[in-house]
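Design a sequence for this backbone.
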């Protein structure tokens, strides 16, 4: 990840939840968001198949009310930080049995932004005094998301 990108992620986590992240955190973050995107796309694929379609549309993805609200909140933060282009490059689009529509592909960086904001908030919910997440906090946050997604 380029230095400029790292600085933007650091700023994002500071603004989102007053959390300081380092390079190890950014590797964990990248693994986390790509795993969760994969989970969302798998469920989206199942929905598209159930509706006899061969393309995954945005409305096939299981976006909850809370995640939708985080996506909207991310849009406001992103106006200042401009993370969307970086998230677009960072997000792995796994090969599935069905293709993604152009709209779905275009929406993925904003979904990742919403997941990122939810992740930052989850750290603070689990430990309101947390300043710098370590492996144990990442594992706890991941378990929360695994339960819900």
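Sequence:
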């Amino acid at each position: 990840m380029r230095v400029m990108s790292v600085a933007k992620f650091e700023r994002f986590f500071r603004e989102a939840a007053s959390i300081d992240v380092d390079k190890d955190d950014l590797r964990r973050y990248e693994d986390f968001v790509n795993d969760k995107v994969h989970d969302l796309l798998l469920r989206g694929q199942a929905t598209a198949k159930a509706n006899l379609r061969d393309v995954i549309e945005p409305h096939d993805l299981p976006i909850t009310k809370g995640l939708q609200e985080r996506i909207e909140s991310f849009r406001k933060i992103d106006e200042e930080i401009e993370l969307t282009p970086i998230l677009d490059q960072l997000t792995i689009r796994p090969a599935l049995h069905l293709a993604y529509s152009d709209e779905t592909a275009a929406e993925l960086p904003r979904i990742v932004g919403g997941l990122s904001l939810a992740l930052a908030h989850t750290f603070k919910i689990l430990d309101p005094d947390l300043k710098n997440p370590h492996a144990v906090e990442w594992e706890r946050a991941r378990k929360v998301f695994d339960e819900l997604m």
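The longest helix spans residues 23-50.
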